[in-house]
Specification:
Elements (H helix, E strand, L loop, with lengths): L1 H26 L10 E15 L2 E8 L2 E7 L9 E13 L2 E14 L5
């Protein structure tokens, strides 16, 4: 009886960890398909950061694409894996697009990746 309960608990924990690890893969947007003024989740590793007066800007590597993120809070540590939620804004100058920036309303440290 106790061994069946232990096995059931282990199975539930393993399934829970697998689901947690798959969340970023299933909800994160492809950086090449971001549209202006739309909200997205993006997932990646922090490459560099700058924090001034509790506002931060950091570069995040999402599978080879660098994405700039602006956040009203402290930047996560360099080399940490994060899930970011925010609005994508195109950066244009004299009618030419120079990529974009995510204005984040949430930055979440993510401890597992699939």
């Amino acid at each position: 009886m106790k061994s069946k309960l232990l096995i059931a608990i282990v199975v539930i924990v393993v399934i829970g960890i697998a689901i947690y690890a798959m969340i970023p893969v299933t909800i994160a947007a492809n950086p090449h398909h971001l549209k202006n003024k739309q909200n997205y989740f993006v997932y990646g590793t922090v490459q560099s950061d700058l924090t001034v007066n509790d506002r931060s800007v950091f570069l995040m590597n999402d599978s080879g694409s660098l994405i700039a993120v602006e956040y009203n809070g402290s930047a996560p540590a360099v080399n940490s894996t994060v899930l970011v939620h925010g609005e994508f804004l195109n950066v244009t100058f004299f009618g030419m697009s120079y990529g974009g920036i995510i204005v984040a309303n949430g930055v979440y440290n993510w401890y597992l990746s699939a």
